[in-house]
Amino acid sequence: MKIKKILMSCLLLAGVLSASAQEQYPKTVYDHNPYWYLQIQGGAQYTLGEIDFKDLISPNVQVAVGRQFTPVFGLRLAVNAWQSRAGIDFASGNYWNAATNQFVALPGGTTKWKWNYVAPGLDATFNLSNLFCGFNPNRIFNFSVFAGLGANIGWGMDKEKNWDNVNLLAANYPYTLGGNQNTEYVWEGTKVRMYGRAGVAADFRVAENVSLGLEVNANTLSDRYNGKKAGNWDWYFNALVGVKIDLGSRYSTRTIEAPKPVEKVVEKVIERIVEKPVPQQIEPTRAFEAKKEPFRRDVFFTISSVIIPKGEQNKVKEVAEYLQANPNATVEITGYADKGTGNAKINRSLSQRRAESVKNALVKKYKIAASRIKTDFKGDTVQPFAVNVENRVAICIAD
């Protein structure tokens, strides 16, 4: 009895999986459009060192312009700038002076210094959300990684202006030339050094083309950057928050209709032919033509827009070609707006202007007579599609 129940459960599960695997038609597919974006960020920097953590924190800003070429890959030119810090903790004690053959008493304390920099660089970006979960322009959260190279231009390591306890440094120097206390690499003027960078970014979409983001990046460059000789690469780390604005249309949509069912042809074998008299026709035979389905194209718009997107303009062209091929045909264009955006007044105006936008394209670009075009608009009172973003549409039906 248990085996029978198990078999029945397996059959039911297989049926459920089979039903869920069937795709729902018609369905909307999103195609990625390459686009530019602008990014403005601010935050803090930690320059790796041996003194207290709080003494190595400094302000930081970054401005970037990028291009998203595919759903996954992009490039950005980022300019990071402001300030870095470094310092030395001196321990008090007696140090042997080989030149005088005697001990010297040295004071203890902390010497700190800071300097300014600007660091332009080029990063390659990779959207892991689109890579592993597929392209979805309406996704709220996107996680990315990036890596790049650039040049760090530093200046202002001035002992008179940007150093604390210079006298302490002078008192201890040159008795502290060992380990992380060596200031042999202290520099002046302006220095340019190459750097490498890598990091992660999390973006939260708050509007159609606007995201708020958090970024953390690590930067490494030569041992001479912070003025101390340590025998290894110098590092600084940036934590930034900011806004990212996408410029232009990020995607276009297209509708995939359900595939036509395969017609089965059944051949019948005639075993016997029986001749029968033809019945008398009482009424003359009338020929009936199959009813033709009206020609339809759905022209989708981006949020709050009445401009026909580039990816949708071919649909308007197809409507025009149908009307040109059928001189007696007319078209009715009905505009809609999605209920999830704006209010009833705004959406009513949007839907009307979307219908008029398609009509104007037919009249001005394709020379279709205005008398053959009827327009209507529904605002957000009618939602022809289940998916909210698909209701930003003008539906064209020609007959």
In words, what does this structure look like?
The protein is α+β, with helices and mostly antiparallel strands. The chain is 17% helix and 42% strand. The protein is built from 5 helices and 17 strands. The protein has helices spanning 2-21, 128-133, 166-172, 313-325, 344-365, and strands at residues 27-32, 35-47, 57-68, 73-90, 93-97, 102-106, 109-127, 141-155, 163-164, 190-207, 210-221, 234-247, 251-256, 295-300, 331-335, 373-377, 393-398. Strand 5 (93-97) and strand 6 (102-106) form a beta hairpin. The longest helix has 22 residues, at 344-365. It is elongated and about 140 Å long. It starts with a helix and ends with a strand. Residues 16-21, 175-180 and 284-289 have low confidence and may be disordered.
Q: How much of the polypeptide forms β-strand, as a percent range?
A: 35-45%
User: Averaged pLDDT, please?
Assistant: 84
> What is the terminal separation in angstroms?
62 Å
Strand order of the largest sheet: 2-3-4-7-8-10-11-12
Largest sheet at a glance?
8 strands, antiparallel, barrel
Structural class: alpha+beta
Number of strands: 17
Q: Tally the helices: what do you get?
A: 5
N to C succession of SSEs = HEEEEEEEHEEHEEEEEHEHEE
Question: What spatial form do the alpha-carbon principal axes imply?
Answer: elongated
Low-confidence stretches: 16-21, 175-180, 284-289
Q: Roughly how many Å is the radius of gyration? A: 36 Å
How much helix is in the residues? 10-25%
